[in-house]
Amino acid sequence: MNKIKLIVGLLNPGAKYYLTRHNAGAWYINLLVKKYKINIKKNINFFGSISSLRINNNNIYILLPNTFINLSGMSVKNVSNFYNIFPEEILIAHDDLDLPPGIIKFKQGGGHGGHNGLKDIIGKLRNNKNFYRLRIGIGHPGNRDKVNQFVLSKPDNDEKELINLALHEAVICTEILFKIGYVHALNRLNSFKIK
Question: Is the pTM of this model over 0.90?
Answer without folding.
Answer: yes
